[in-house]
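Lab notebook, design round three. We kept the backbone fixed and only want residue identities now. Task for the bench partner: fill in a sequence for the structure below.
Input structure tokens:
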């Protein structure tokens, strides 16, 4: 593990000092020298006392950082993308090379409403970008109430280089490009398609990825396509009384929340809040929402919606809801080895069910403040990560992946859960939740496995389609665990299913991020 040091770029002020000193040369070298030193003294300096000169990418351009909220300065970054880069809303600096390692400045800034998942700190403000491999300057910081700026962000050499065309930027861009033709699909003709949530999750992932990667063109298209979707007449998913509709439909709210976090559209925020607030309009005696089925899947479907609501409002009630749901799920579904049953009646360790929990825990821990509640959630997260390392595939054609049923010895590697676990592990390493080097190694191996199964069109292969649980769908009870396991192992895998595309994009973006909003 190593910590990258911040080096503040001083090229603009340094150039000004040099120009003024030259102009004053006829009045005497001493006066010019003193003036230039005074001006440099006003400049930002690197933490080690040296002056860092802003760099340029192959195309000769530099881009300015800066955040949409907070008071930190925006500074030039080291360009890495061919042709240089340009600033995007929320502020990014530098670029990212397609050759593998990140070679530029990093995302900086978040939304102006307390920060958002795209670029900045996730709560209380925005955080600075981190020093990238091959780069020598970072984006400006702007005070974060909680969470770490990149100056103190953990990192790992495991994430510094990747096979040709299989780097995070490569896979993420390809997957986003694949999605661009699907932005008008929605939740189907009636707004009730069970897999519609996977469309929404891919959509918000594409928005976040393009913002982090400073792809302003594609990000702008995604935002305009969202407006076209709303105007298309396609029905929005239902938003009825909790328990009366599926949580899968309510999870649509994640998408308008992300739109709001990126462009401050008040209508998008209101659309998300109608779903997040409706979810708690009917509760059980313990305060949990009646939407809860006590499926592992719910720990993303419910938790992420409430976390997004927090990001949009900074209202802690949404985090409290999410944390209490997660802690109750620990008692109902998490087992001694750290892994989760799919449901209370289905005791198989289905891979994607565990993936939903891992991703939901990750989103929650990026936001939860310090305290007993965070400690309890963190303990469950770390317990699951330890359990996952023990069942990661190490042989066969897909080393680094995870199996369709995690503890079944017959290999049938499944890539949606592999992407979710990789996302959770990468984020844990880069936010200091997982300190042992073995976690970074597991995360790297997971992403390598994803790269092997992602084609040039950005479509991830070996993905399980939308699946119910063995008890409800097939009537196989928990007393027949082998039968329940077979229910999942018999599923036919496909390529390009959005259940895999969404977490592939999440994992790629997690590797590109240089901030650590979940560090406490």
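Proposed sequence:
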């Amino acid at each position: 593990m190593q910590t990258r040091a911040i080096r503040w770029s001083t090229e603009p002020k340094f150039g000004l000092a040099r120009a003024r000193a030259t102009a004053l040369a006829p009045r005497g070298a001493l006066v010019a020298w003193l003036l230039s030193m005074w001006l440099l003294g006003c400049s930002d300096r690197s933490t080690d006392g040296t002056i860092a000169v802003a760099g340029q990418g192959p195309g000769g351009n530099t881009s300015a950082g800066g955040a949409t909220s907070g008071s930190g300065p925006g500074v030039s970054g080291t360009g890495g993308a061919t042709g240089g880069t340009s600033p995007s809303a929320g502020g990014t600096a530098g670029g990212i090379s397609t050759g593998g390692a990140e070679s530029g400045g990093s995302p900086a800034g978040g939304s102006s409403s307390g920060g958002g998942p795209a670029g900045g700190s996730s709560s209380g403000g925005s955080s600075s970008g981190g020093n990238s491999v091959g780069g020598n300057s970072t984006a400006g910081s702007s005070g974060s109430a909680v969470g770490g700026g990149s100056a103190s962000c953990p990192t790992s050499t495991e994430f510094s280089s990747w096979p040709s065309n299989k780097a995070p930027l490569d896979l993420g861009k390809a997957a986003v490009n694949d999605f661009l033709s699907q932005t008008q699909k929605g939740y189907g003709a009636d707004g009730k398609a069970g897999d519609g949530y996977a469309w929404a999750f891919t959509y918000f992932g594409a928005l976040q990825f393009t913002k982090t990667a400073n792809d302003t063109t594609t990000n702008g298209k995604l935002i305009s396509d969202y407006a076209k979707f709303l105007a298309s007449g396609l029905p929005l998913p239902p938003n009825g009384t909790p328990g009366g509709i599926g949580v899968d439909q309510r999870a649509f709210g994640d998408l308008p929340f992300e739109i709001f976090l990126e462009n401050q559209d008040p209508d998008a925020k209101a659309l998300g809040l109608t779903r997040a607030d409706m979810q708690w309009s009917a509760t059980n005696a313990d305060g949990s929402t009646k939407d809860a089925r006590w499926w592992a899947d719910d720990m993303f479907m419910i938790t992420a919606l409430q976390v997004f609501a927090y990001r949009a409002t900074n209202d802690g009630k949404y985090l409290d809801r999410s944390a209490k749901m997660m802690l109750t799920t620990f008692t109902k579904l998490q087992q001694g080895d750290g892994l989760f049953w799919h449901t209370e009646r289905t005791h198989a360790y289905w891979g994607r069910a565990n993936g939903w929990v891992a991703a939901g825990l990750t989103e929650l821990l990026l936001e939860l403040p310090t305290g007993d509640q965070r400690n309890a959630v963190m303990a469950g997260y770390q317990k699951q990560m330890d359990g996952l390392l023990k069942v990661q595939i190490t042989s066969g054609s897909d080393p680094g992946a995870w199996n369709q049923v995690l503890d079944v010895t017959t290999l049938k590697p499944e890539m949606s859960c592999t992407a979710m676990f990789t996302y959770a592990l990468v984020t844990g390493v880069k936010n200091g939740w997982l300190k042992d080097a073995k976690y970074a190694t597991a995360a790297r191996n997971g992403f390598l496995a994803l790269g092997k199964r992602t084609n040039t069109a950005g479509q991830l292969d070996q993905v399980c389609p939308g699946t119910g649980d063995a008890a409800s769908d097939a009537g196989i009870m928990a007393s027949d665990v082998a039968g329940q396991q077979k229910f999942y192992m018999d599923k036919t895998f496909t390529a390009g299913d959005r259940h895999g595309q969404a977490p592939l994009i999440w994992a790629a973006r997690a590797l590109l991020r240089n901030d650590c909003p979940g560090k406490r």
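Keep this in mind before ordering anything: DSSP finds 17 helices and four strands in the chain.
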